[in-house]
Please model this.
Amino acid sequence: MANTYAPPVPTLSGENYTASYLLNNPRIIWRLLNTIAQQRLVGARLLTGRVDLTGSGAVVYQTQESIFANDTSAIIGELEEYPLTDDTSAPPSLATSLKRGLAELVSLEDVARNRLDVLQRKLIKLANRVVIDHDAIVLSAIGSAVTATQAAVGPWNGTGTTPNPFLDLLNAKAQIDELNLGYTADTVVVTPQNFAYLVNAMVKFDAVAASDLPGLLQANMVRAAGLNIWQTTNMPTGVTALVADSTLLGSIGFERLGGGYNGDPSDPLGIESKTWMTEKNDGWRIQARKIAVPIVQEPGAAVKLTGN
Model:
């Protein structure tokens, strides 16, 4: 862990005064850091369930459980008995919460000699790193659990067979819906490049009127045919587009450990943080953590696109 020190003190040599630009100087305009809300974080939009693991740190859950009894219903005559049936339980799985975090030491001199709020600025950086790492873990878990695929008509960049990105999404949605397991696809996540190809194709083929885009585009999302289409830079290796039922795909488990941290562990985009002064070395210690685990309960509720 690297420590943060104050800028070097100014020096005077003859008529030349030299000072670090990081020193307290009201003429400097500091750029604003991107906050976690501005990052393309979509894991929590795919796993919309929330499971409180406080007190155990673990949860046992079933994966891909059928919603039907094993036998079809029968016609029953007067005073006849109902035929008996059974149902198949899904195999149990175990998920345990994971605590991820970072810390940094900041000298009192660095805090006193800068015109900006050094601690807040550094906390934002820590939070951004921890939360974006968590989002990548969620998407990686989804990418590993989901095995169903839908072949694209052609590469979305236009090389080879004439592409039809919007039809590809609808075919993937249909594959999910036709399982007849109660799934209804409502969410799509794609890489930024494929998001550009997709929106362009939707306008070109009148899937979405160009005049409507300002009202439909919200930051990194466009909505069409009952699908919320999000772009993200955190897609797992080998996956460029995924269609899912976000209400059934799974959940994110969280745990409350206390310890004087600020923040809500149940907030999928949130972070817990803590700041205190370390008397023995005249500095501040700042920490940020995320205690959570992705739980993919219904991998059949999603389909990965290939060849796009």
